[in-house]
């Protein structure tokens, strides 16, 4: 059986307000290496909070979260940042590409922080761009790319440094159906290569392609059949 | 994060908005330019004032000789005594009394009761080196020499203004003047005096003929020294002139040139320094403002970098380096403009440009420090952002 990448145990996140808002409520889930998991749910259901917790961008109020076997909830800020940089590749709905840098420079940015060597960084970035089928656009700035190409560039950046987990937040939210198809085909390829993918989406087409689906409603997680 | 990566990211961050970067730099450019120009021009102008001061006063030593009833304190060979001193470039001994300072001098023997024909001029006896000692020039004719002195010739040299008053123009026909009842032949006109300017209204006669006006003893010795020698000469001259009675002589020495220079420059510098610093503070506020706006605009970039593994210190370092580079660039351009302006102003005024090389080197550094300080708060704001909030 593949090793678990994500182990969530009774994880809750409460936001201080009057009354306090319980965004996610005692969520427990395991995601193993090579899994392709879709988390679906309506707006305000707690999807983004769960993604932030999984991406080590936010701390849960209670519960335990192990990433690649490392218990993360007690880690200090610096250690969480290092773990995030080393193990997680993010794909955002709005791509988050730096407008004034070329595609290859945007991809190289993923190895600027952390202990990655400078040597051959460009070659590794070009390799990542090749994996997503963007070898012909490496010198372009993002404004000259189509939406689908931008998202593929962002995926190439997420793949740099060999993460154990690709965490995607509505990756096709800004794409038309053709580009959505291309990105989802890419996810299929990556999964076939053994990458663990967690996608948060409210689009049925995206969740259908995933091997496993969970639904989150009012902060409570349930397996979706 | 490696230093080279930090450098690359900061530079790329700046160059992403070149126009804004240039405009932000402008504040520091103006501040540093003002600082360098004000300090440079102040130093140059200050040096100019002191330079003139030096030339006219700092090398002039005067020894006043009080009148003595018995033997004179200083004899007429005073010049040879003082010129032996190291640093003395020229000297002259002069005899002038209260009575001789107001003598009636006429250019002819006629007495016209309807007109004022006589001028009240100062008559003094001097040694033959007076033109050099008074830093003047013979406008016409010549000064009397050792021969005139030895032969007790009744010759006189008159100052240029005295010549005008007396109506003496050309010396070709050997004009005479009458000092009281005594006729003297005018052999020269002394003018363009840069020291002892009152000599332009005086009549100078050889010491050997001055006795009839009571000009027997030396009352003053004028000494010129080379630059820097005045202090030493003014201490040695009394002993050289009158060994044993040196304490009776009164030496008028120039003020210390170093102190004069420092004081003049301190006054000018303090004022301009404040001006320059104010400009620099304005520049710093400009950088701080723009960096803060930039941070607010780049919130999503900060979020992205945090998601890619950037620690808070990496974010802070990048923004600090960006603002420091802005300041440094402003400093380099400002220092260059400042130096060029100082040289241009000096050229226009025909001054010798004077600029402390340390100032030219420290100015870019000051720009960098200004940028660093101005970037502190924005960098802190950027570092404090929570990645969740920044990515929202």
UniProtKB/TrEMBL annotation, chain A:
| GO CC annotations, alphabetized | membrane protein complex; plasma membrane
Write the record's keywords in alphabetical order, separated by commas: ATP-binding, Nucleotide-binding, Transport
List the SMART domains hit by this protein, alphabetically: AAA
**Coiled-coil stretches noted in the UniProt entry, renumbered to this chain:** none
Where does the record place the ABC transporter domain? Answer: 6-225
Report which superkingdom the organism of origin falls in. Bacteria
Checking Pfam families in the record gives: ABC_tran
Cleaved signal peptide residues: none
Q: Does the keyword Chloroplast apply?
A: no
Write out the GO MF terms. Answer: ATP binding; ATP hydrolysis activity; transmembrane transporter activity
Q: What is this protein called?
A: Putative ABC transport system ATP-binding protein
From TrEMBL, chain B:
Q: Where in the cell is it found?
A: Cell membrane
Topological relation to the membrane, as annotated: Multi-pass membrane protein
Tell me which GO cellular component terms the UniProt record holds: plasma membrane
Q: Transmembrane helix among the record's keywords?
A: yes
The terms under GO molecular function for this entry are: transmembrane transporter activity
The residues covered by the ABC3 transporter permease C-terminal domain are 274-387
Say if the entry is tagged with keyword Transport.
Answer: no
The regions listed as transmembrane in this protein's record are 270-295, 316-345, 357-377
Record keywords: Cell membrane, Membrane, Transmembrane, Transmembrane helix
- Record-linked Pfam families: FtsX, MacB_PCD
- Domain (MacB-like periplasmic core): residue spans on this chain: 22-223
Q: Which family does it belong to?
A: Belongs to the ABC-4 integral membrane protein family.
* Annotated protein name in UniProt: Putative ABC transport system permease protein
């Amino acid at each position: 059986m593949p090793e678990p990448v994500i182990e969530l145990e009774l994880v809750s996140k409460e936001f201080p307000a009057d009354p306090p808002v319980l965004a996610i409520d005692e969520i427990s889930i395991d995601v193993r290496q090579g899994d392709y998991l879709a988390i679906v749910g309506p707006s305000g259901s707690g999807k983004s909070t769960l993604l932030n917790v999984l991406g080590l961008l936010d701390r849960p109020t209670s519960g335990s979260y192990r990433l690649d076997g490392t218990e993360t909830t007690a880690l200090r800020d610096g250690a969480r940042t290092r773990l995030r940089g080393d193990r997680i590749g993010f794909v955002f709905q709005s791509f988050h590409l730096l407008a004034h840098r070329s595609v290859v420079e945007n991809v190289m940015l993923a190895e600027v922080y952390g202990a990655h060597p400078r040597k051959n960084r460009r070659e590794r970035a070009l390799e990542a761009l090749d994996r997503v089928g963007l070898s012909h656009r490496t010198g372009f700035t993002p404004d000259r790319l189509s939406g689908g190409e931008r998202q593929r560039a962002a995926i190439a950046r997420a793949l740099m440094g060999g993460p154990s987990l690709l965490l995607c937040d509505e990756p096709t939210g800004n794409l038309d159906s053709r580009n959505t198809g291309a990105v989802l085909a890419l996810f299929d390829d990556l999964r076939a290569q053994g990458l663990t993918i967690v996608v948060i989406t409210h689009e049925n087409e995206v969740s259908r392609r995933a091997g496993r689906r969970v639904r989150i409603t009012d902060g409570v997680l349930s397996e979706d059949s | 994060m490696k230093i080279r990566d930090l450098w690359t990211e900061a530079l790329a961050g700046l160059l992403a908005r070149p126009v804004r970067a240039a405009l932000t730099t402008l504040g520091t450019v103006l501040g540093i330019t003002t600082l360098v120009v004000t300090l440079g021009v102040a130093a140059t102008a200050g040096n100019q004032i002191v330079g003139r001061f030096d030339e006219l006063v700092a090398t002039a030593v005067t020894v006043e000789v009080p009148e003595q009833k018995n033997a004179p304190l200083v004899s007429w060979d005073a010049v040879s005594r003082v010129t032996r001193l190291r640093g003395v470039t020229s000297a002259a001994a002069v005899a002038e009394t209260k009575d001789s300072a107001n003598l009636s001098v006429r250019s002819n023997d006629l007495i016209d009761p309807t007109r004022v024909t006589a001028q009240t001029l100062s008559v003094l006896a001097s040694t033959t080196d007076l033109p050099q000692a008074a830093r003047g020039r013979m406008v016409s004719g010549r000064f009397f020499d050792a021969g005139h002195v030895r032969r007790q010739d009744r010759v006189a040299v008159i100052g240029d203004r005295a010549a005008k008053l007396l109506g003496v123009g050309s010396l070709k026909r050997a004009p005479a003047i009458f000092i009281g009842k005594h006729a003297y032949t005018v052999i020269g006109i002394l003018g363009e005096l840069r020291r002892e300017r009152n000599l332009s209204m005086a009549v100078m006669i050889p010491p050997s003929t001055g006795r009839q006006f009571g000009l027997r003893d030396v009352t003053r010795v004028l000494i010129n020294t080379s630059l820097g020698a005045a202090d030493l000469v003014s201490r040695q001259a009394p002993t050289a002139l009158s060994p044993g009675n040196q304490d009776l002589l009164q030496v008028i020495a120039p003020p210390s040139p170093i102190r004069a220079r420092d004081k003049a420059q301190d006054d000018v510098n303090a004022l301009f320094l404040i001006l320059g610093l104010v400009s620099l503070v304005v520049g710093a506020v400009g950088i701080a403002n723009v960096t803060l706006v930039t941070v607010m605009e780049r919130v999503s970039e900060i979020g992205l970098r945090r998601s890619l593994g950037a620690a808070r210190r990496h974010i802070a370092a990048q923004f600090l380096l960006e603002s420091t580079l802005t300041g440094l660039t402003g400093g380099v351009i400002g220092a260059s403009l400042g130096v060029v302006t100082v040289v241009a102003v000096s050229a226009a005024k025909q001054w010798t440009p004077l600029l402390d090389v340390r100032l030219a080197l420290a100015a870019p550094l000051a720009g960098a420090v200004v940028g660093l300080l101005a970037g502190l708060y924005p960098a802190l704001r950027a570092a404090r952002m929570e990645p969740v909030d920044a990515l929202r």
